[in-house]
């Protein structure tokens, strides 16, 4: 009996001691969520050495910001730092901006890290990155297939000992490929039959960073010449009432404005139109606002576009007189 009592005493003593010792709790390790965002550069397009570049990062608002935004810049200028860093809080996102002025040409990679904490105390890190090239302009050109100009491919190349990139397949192109800060513009033949020696074409654009051509339908499908200068598209087209007309349009608009009738070819140089009159076959010039129209050829001089294109150079205009 005494043995049983001793066993029970030891048993309950052990229970008491176990209850008096606080248990060791092994909690889950702290976790950190990672989210992305978008990065935009201004100005867009060609950026020169010494020109201020503004960075804007957009990040979804997942909590309150706990630390300052951290920018890093990797590029030819190793000592470059981000200036004027600001954070703008909106209802559903944060916008982080900063500026830098590159002093060396080449590729710069920008990385941003921003820490937040949500309502549950979880740490969230936003990571955003992007690249910009300084003094490194794309060169665009067209390569026909097997010498056949009716089919070919548009390429772009930075001429930096890297392989050229294919942009898009394209049918017969007419004239030059025009480039501005948003992308390129070109004419693609829509009717292989000549109209007085001039092809009828559709205006296409390809935005920088994309490979898909987009037809600008507002310009029609009977365009005969094209110039893209200072935010405006200037083009000539054959109309439904059998006329040639010179038009202009703002680059980001879908509306066109008549500049002058009876023009089947025009180009722009130094704020002047140089154009061919489809009625008297003469060569003219006129300011871009439509003033100071001047005939450049004699009355008995005839220029036929199907026999000789017009070339406008720095100090001369080249054409062929049909009398010779």
UniProtKB/TrEMBL annotation:
Pfam families membership: DUF5050 (PF16472)
Cite the Prolow-density lipoprotein receptor-related protein 1-like beta-propeller domain residue spans from the record. Answer: 113-302
Q: Which domain of life is it from?
A: Bacteria
Query: InterPro entries of this UniProt entry?
Result: LRP1-like_beta_prop (IPR032485)
Write the protein's name: DUF5050 domain-containing protein
Native organism: Brevibacillus brevis
């Amino acid at each position: 009996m005494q043995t049983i009592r001793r066993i029970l005493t030891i048993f309950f003593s052990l229970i008491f001691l176990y209850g008096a010792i606080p248990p060791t709790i092994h909690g889950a390790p702290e976790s950190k969520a990672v989210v992305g965002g978008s990065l935009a550069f201004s100005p867009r397009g060609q950026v020169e050495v010494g020109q201020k570049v503004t960075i804007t990062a957009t990040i979804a608002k997942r909590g309150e910001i706990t630390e300052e935004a951290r920018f890093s810049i990797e590029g030819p200028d190793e000592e470059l730092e981000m200036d004027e860093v600001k954070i703008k809080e909106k209802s559903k996102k944060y916008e982080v901006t900063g500026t830098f002025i590159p002093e060396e040409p080449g590729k710069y990679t920008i990385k941003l890290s921003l820490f937040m904490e949500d309502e549950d105390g979880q740490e969230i890190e936003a990571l955003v990155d992007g690249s910009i090239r300084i003094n490194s302009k794309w060169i665009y050109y067209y390569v026909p297939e097997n010498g056949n100009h009716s089919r070919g491919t548009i390429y772009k190349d930075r001429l930096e000992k890297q392989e050229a990139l294919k942009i898009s397949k394209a049918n017969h192109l007419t004239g030059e490929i025009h480039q501005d800060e948003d992308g390129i513009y070109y004419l693609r033949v829509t009717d292989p039959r000549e109209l007085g020696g001039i092809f009828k074409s559709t205006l296409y654009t390809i935005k920088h960073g994309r490979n898909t051509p987009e037809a600008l339908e507002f310009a029609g499908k009977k365009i005969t010449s094209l110039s893209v200068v200072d935010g405006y598209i200037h083009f000539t087209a054959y109309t439904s009432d059998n006329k040639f007309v010179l038009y202009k349009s703002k680059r980001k608009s879908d509306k066109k404005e008549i500049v002058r009738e009876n023009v089947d070819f025009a180009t722009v140089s130094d704020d002047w139109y140089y154009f061919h009159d489809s009625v008297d076959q003469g060569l003219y010039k006129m300011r871009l606002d439509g003033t100071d129209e001047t005939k450049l050829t004699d009355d008995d001089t005839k220029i036929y576009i199907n026999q000789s294109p017009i070339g406008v150079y720095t100090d001369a205009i080249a054409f062929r007189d049909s009398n010779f």
